[in-house]
Amino acid sequence: MFNSSEKSDQKTTEDILKTVYDALDEKGYNAIDQMVGYILSGDPSYITGHNNARNIIRHIERDDLVEELLRAFLKK
């Protein structure tokens, strides 16, 4: 799950989400709320630029992200 079908040197979806979460958390934001805001709106200002998080999360298409999250949730 969450494995990229791209080259192995690229980060997985899970890695990207963890990196963005950590960057938001380090800056004192409610990371879950900020990430949900980004997913729903597409507005990158929900994601901090700290640790390049804003650019990193753009490597995932939002609709693909929602699909992966739903799959992971339903498998539990």
UniProtKB/TrEMBL annotation:
Residue ranges crossing the lipid bilayer per the database entry: none
Pfam families (UniProt xref): IreB
Top-level taxon in the UniProt lineage: Bacteria
Family assignment from sequence similarity: Belongs to the UPF0297 family.
Listed name of the protein: IreB family regulatory phosphoprotein
Organism: Aminipila butyrica
Lineage summary: Bacteria, Bacillati, Bacillota, Clostridia, Peptostreptococcales
